[in-house]
Specification:
By secondary structure, this protein is mainly beta. The chain has helices at residues 2-15, 150-155, and strands spanning 23-30, 33-37, 45-50, 57-66, 69-74, 86-93, 95-98, 124-127, 143-145, 158-160. Strands 1-2-5-4-3-6 form a six-stranded antiparallel β-barrel.
């Protein structure tokens, strides 16, 4: 019976795993925009643009479409990227890691530590594209936030909350 329990566990683990990657190729780079062909993806997807070696890649976000081409905006340096560089879509939107371990750390724009203290294990991931909170469900702001600048305190009063 233990053999079947292990088999069921492995089957569940492999159920959502993809064993191949659909990809495309870079056709053109102009300014900060990268054009790719043959890449199956949708708006907001995160893609990996591979550089010279198979281990190095630059993350990019799908920002548009032009005819049958995908427009990507890279998050990093495009050094090593050239015509026909391989591009793979992760089929997910950008998420940022969050958790108590990030308090007091120096992070880059994607939430990666830059302070040399090693990696941080995130407690969760939150999407950057989220619905805004309903303003009618927020607490009422009742406390004034004094800045000490008379012009701001008088004309552009700020509330705490």
């Amino acid at each position: 019976m233990a053999v079947f329990a292990n088999a069921e566990r492995y089957r569940k683990a492999l159920k959502d795993k993809e064993f191949y990657e659909y990809g495309g190729r870079i056709s053109q780079v102009y300014g900060l925009t990268v054009e790719a062909v043959g890449l199956p993806c949708k708006m907001g997807d995160i893609c990996r643009i591979y550089t010279d070696s198979k281990d190095n890649y630059v993350l990019a976000e799908v920002v548009g479409f032009k005819e049958k081409k995908v427009l990507l905006m890279p998050f990093g340096d495009l050094g090593g990227v050239g015509p026909n560089s391989f591009v793979v879509s992760d089929n997910r939107s950008l998420n940022v890691p969050v958790g108590r371990g990030f308090c007091g750390r120096v992070l880059d724009g994607l939430g990666n530590p830059m302070d040399g203290l090693g990696p941080v294990k995130p407690e969760a991931y939150y999407p950057i594209m989220n619905n805004p909170p309903n303003p009618m469900e927020r607490r009422r702001i009742t406390e004034k936030l004094t800045l000490g600048v008379k012009a701001i305190d008088a004309m552009l009063t700020l509330g705490k909350g």
